[in-house]
Design a protein that fits this description.
The protein is an alpha+beta fold. It has helices at 7-20, 89-100, 111-122, 128-142, 145-161, 169-178, 186-199, and strands at residues 25-28, 31-36, 39-47, 53-62, 73-77, 81-82, 109-110, 207-208, 210-211. The chain is built from seven helices and nine strands. Strands 1, 2, 3, 4, 5, 6 and 8 form a seven-stranded mixed sheet that branches. Strands 7-9 form a two-stranded parallel ribbon. The chain is globular, with a radius of gyration of 18 Å.
Length: 212
């Protein structure tokens, strides 16, 4: 019979993952996060229904939008890992995350370099609309017209080239309406980021700079 994920075992697993990613802090048991500019960056270890396995998911969360919870945006998931993990499969998953993630987990991050990574990642992710939305929010948060103009051009091209990501034209138009429209919203967004850190209890997590 497979071992179930008890509170004690969850704590041990969280610690093992934190040892692989020391730049992250423990947000909750089975959830590691740090803050990079307006993004929460983390790894959620999602416990599945029978509680004998968990699914590691690398993700980001956009703090520029008001939210009640941390969302698993633009996720990179992995195969399930058994609670007992006698073969230390989590080490291989950790290695693959380190090789394939689109934003560094440690150190300060260049926004322009991140944008280029996200442009490349667009081609392989299944969460294309989600990625485009975050790119626009990051561009507005930067307050830099040249960054916003570049991202706006990229997003508009993808909206025209890949309409299938929305299913219908109505959904596509509704999505466009949700996007911020100008860098004039920069200061408002930065205030929301500060509010979200307090609201979601993120202030004590490790923080990094996003360099503009």
């Amino acid at each position: 019979m497979r071992k179930s994920l008890t509170s004690s075992l969850k704590k041990q697993i969280t610690q093992k993952w934190n040892e692989q990613f020391p730049g992250l802090g423990v947000y909750k048991p089975m959830w590691l996060l740090n803050i990079c500019g307006p993004l929460a960056v983390g790894i959620a270890l999602l416990v599945k229904s029978d509680k004998t396995v968990y699914e590691p998911v690398f993700h980001i969360h956009n703090l520029c939008k008001d939210s009640e919870v941390i969302s698993l945006n633009v996720p990179i998931d992995a195969l399930y890992i058994y609670a007992d993990d006698t073969r230390n499969e989590y080490l291989e998953v950790s290695r693959k995350f380190k090789e394939n993630i689109y934003i560094p987990i440690n150190g300060d991050v260049s926004l322009t370099a991140l944008m280029e990574n996200l442009k490349k990642y667009f081609d392989i992710t299944c969460f294309k609309a989600n990625l485009l939305q975050i790119m626009v929010y990051l561009a507005v948060w930067s307050g830099k017209e040249e960054i916003y103009d570049d991202v706006k051009h990229f997003v508009e091209n993808k909206l025209n080239d890949c309409p299938e990501m929305f299913g219908t034209e109505i959904v596509r138009k509704e999505f466009i309406e949700t996007l911020p429209k100008s860098i004039d919203e920069c200061e408002k967004m930065r205030a929301i980021v500060r509010e979200q850190e307090e609201k979601l209890k993120l202030t004590k997590l490790p923080h990094r700079e996003m360099i503009i």
